[in-house]
Design a protein that fits this description.
The protein has about 210 residues and is α/β, with parallel strands linked by helices. The protein is about 35% helix and about 20% strand. Helix 1 crosses helix 7 and helix 4 packs parallel to helix 6. It is globular and about 45 Å long. The mean pLDDT is about 95. The structure holds NADP nicotinamide-adenine-dinucleotide phosphate (NAP).
């Protein structure tokens, strides 16, 4: 789990633990983790450190990525750089599947944004431009250099925290402004969803 202390990642981690899974989480600040117990293994570090990514993924079934640092991503594509180290480690360790959460305002590789999303991205959400570009670069990397693995991208349309507003469904066109909890629930279902492999779809409420 990458991003376990984040707003989506915390919900995802709690859900995975509640369902009886074991979780290995790379975190910069272990004290921020809400989840405790013998089923969570905490590895302290940053994706920008020279961490041992082979050890990080050894023995796991799924990699789940809900990383974001808008300030750093304005300067450098830190997620892309990390994914370029992580994917070879997954291959070496025989880990097949990865779910990566990007945003609805990030253009999928080979696709384009609707005019409405393009306007929101370039006007209202302009301060997140580095994050969009990093997410787009990750999607391009996965689509062009990692199709031997089972990657899944969720282009989430999160806007608010708060309680569940319903159940999100996958869509190539429709999107909803969702809560972090609902995006985490969607990601939890999607990581084992075979039909989502090699897609970079949006999500919307039924
Ligand atoms: N927030 C939104 O409204 C929104 C909307 C659409 C899409 N998304 C996408 O969803 C993803 C996650 O968003 P979020 O809002 O749930 O995340 P978030 O609350 O901003 O949390 C980001 C997580 O990434 C971790 N992280 C950042 N830099 C790191 C580093 N160098 N090393 C290790 N961990 C690091 C953070 O750790 P720390 O606790 O140490 O900071 C935190 O756990 C992002 O890709 C974002 O583009 C977000």
């Amino acid at each position: 789990m990458l991003g376990a202390t984040g707003r989506t990642g915390e919900h995802f981690t709690n859900r995975a633990l509640a369902e009886g899974h074991r979780v290995r989480a790379l975190v910069r600040s272990p004290e921020k983790l809400a989840a405790h117990g013998e089923r969570i293994e905490v590895v302290r570090g940053s994706i920008t450190d020279t961490i041992d990514t082979d050890s990080l993924v050894a023995g796991i079934d799924y990699v789940v990525v809900m990383l974001g640092d808008a300030a750093s991503q304005r300067r450098t594509k830190i997620n892309t750089a990390f994914m370029k180290r992580l994917i070879p480690s997954m291959r070496r360790q025989g880990v097949r599947r990865i779910l990566y959460q990007a945003g609805a305002l990030s253009r999928p590789h080979g696709g384009r944004l609707s005019p409405a999303l393009w306007l929101i991205r370039n006007l209202i959400a302009r301060s997140f431009i580095g994050q969009h570009r990093d997410n787009e670069s990750v999607m391009a990397f996965l689509a062009t250099q990692a199709n031997d693995l089972e990657w899944i991208v969720h282009r989430a349309g999160i806007y608010s925290d708060g309680p569940s507003k319903g159940r999100l469904q996958r869509s190539s066109r429709k999107y909803s402004v969702a809560s972090f909890a609902d995006c985490a629930d969607y990601n939890y279902r999607m990581v084992t969803e075979r039909s989502a492999i090699h897609t970079a779809d949006l999500s919307h409420y039924e």
